[in-house]
Amino acid sequence: MSYPRIDLDGATIAITGAARGIGLATAKAFVEQGAFVALGDLDEALAVQAAAEIGDHAIGHALDVTDKASYTAFLDATAQWRGPLDVLVNNAGVMPNGAFLEQSDRIDQLTMDVNVYGVIHGMRLALPGMVARGYGHVVNVASLAGKFPIKGLAVYNASKYAVVGLTAATRLEMDATGVSVSAVLPSAVRTELSSGIDYGILPAVDPEDIAAAVVRTVRTRAAETAVPGYVGVLANASGLVPEPVMRALRKVANDDAAITRVDDNARRVYLDRIEKQ
Ligand SMILES: NC(=O)c1ccc[n+]([C@@H]2O[C@H](COP(=O)([O-])OP(=O)(O)OC[C@H]3O[C@@H](n4cnc5c(N)ncnc54)[C@H](O)[C@@H]3O)[C@@H](O)[C@H]2O)c1
């Protein structure tokens, strides 16, 4: 596979869920390379404020990735601002935690709508223009939870497995078009989304580490980039480990952290935010 080189200096980039966390760090990392970045977020005021703080290489825009009309308006505004889209980062996501039997239908639906349909809408809207130009790159921010089941994150797991599959299949369909589709798979990242959960031995990284990985994919066009990389290798290898051995290893690693090792007060702010979406 070979793809036309994307020069980030002056490139037009759209990032979803970019008002805070990984999306915001990614916007800053792209601007450092000379790109122009549209920050879309459900929290319009925060997106506009974040863009103003970045400077004239950024704009903030209202966006609900679950609503195709809203996503269309975001991409239209981006194109009017800076011309055709070079890179799309589907980053917006929600992560409710708790025992599967205790989660509500509404939150299940929200998780699938944002994490899966948000990515589908983004690709359906952005890919045709990229294919017509024979040039462009889509990065879907999935998760290691798209490769490795975690107690207390069952529906989130389902949504991220979906994104991993969706990315892999669309990447194949885009062969010979000049357009690449990549997935970035973070481990635990220190953002509001993971606040209050003590993952124990699972390595935690900073949003800037994921941002650097997203930017790197513009050069590597790698199918999957896990952060940290070795956790991706372990997650892939875990499928080959016999179940009794895996269960014993899981016990040592406190694999029910997302249910039992939760600081409810610290977590409440985040859960309240997504409950109101
Ligand atoms: N933080 C982690 O531990 C972690 C680990 C692996 C993967 N991820 C993934 O990284 C991505 C970003 O997560 P984060 O940690 O930065 O989360 P975050 O909660 O800090 O930021 C997510 C942003 O997405 C926005 N958003 C939510 N729903 C939206 C919608 N419908 N339309 C538009 N914007 C919406 C929120 O307003 C928020 O600003 C998510 O897809 C998440 O699943 C995070």
Strand content: 15-25%
CATH topology value: Rossmann fold
Give, in spatial order, the strands making up the sheet with the most strands: 3-2-1-4-5-6-9
Provide the gyration radius in Å.
18 Å
Largest β-sheet summary: 7 strands, parallel
- Bound molecule types: nicotinamide-adenine-dinucleotide
Per CATH, the class reads Alpha Beta
Uncertain segments are none
CATH superfamily membership: NAD(P)-binding Rossmann-like Domain
Please provide the count of β strands: 9
Question: What is the level-2 CATH architecture name?
Answer: 3-Layer(aba) Sandwich
- Which class best fits the helix and strand makeup? alpha/beta
Mean pLDDT: 97
Count of runs of 4 or more consecutive helical residues: 10
Question: Helical proportion?
Answer: 40-55%
What's the topology here?
Layout: E1 12-16, H1 21-32, E2 36-41, H2 44-54, E3 58-62, H3 68-82, E4 87-90, H4 105-133, E5 136-141, H5 154-173, E6 179-186, E7 188-189, E8 204-205, H6 207-220, E9 224-227, H7 229-238, H8 243-252, H9 257-260, H10 264-275
The structure holds nicotinamide-adenine-dinucleotide.
Describe the protein's architecture and organization.
This protein has helices at residues 21-32, 44-54, 68-82, 105-133, 154-173, 207-220, 229-238, 243-252, 257-260, 264-275; strands spanning 12-16, 36-41, 58-62, 87-90, 136-141, 179-186, 188-189, 204-205, 224-227. It is an alpha/beta fold. The protein has one domain (12-275): NAD(P)-binding Rossmann-like Domain (Rossmann fold), CATH 3.40.50.720. The strands form two sheets. Strands 3-2-1-4-5-6-9 form a seven-stranded parallel sheet, with helices on both faces. Strands 7-8 form a two-stranded parallel ribbon. Helix 4 (105-133) links the parallel strand 4 and strand 5. The radius of gyration is 18 Å and the shape is globular. The N and C termini lie far apart (40 Å). Bound molecules: nicotinamide-adenine-dinucleotide. Nicotinamide-adenine-dinucleotide (NAD) is lined by residues 16-17, 19-23, 41-43, 63-66, 91-95, 114, 118, 141, 143, 186, 188-189, 191-194, 277.
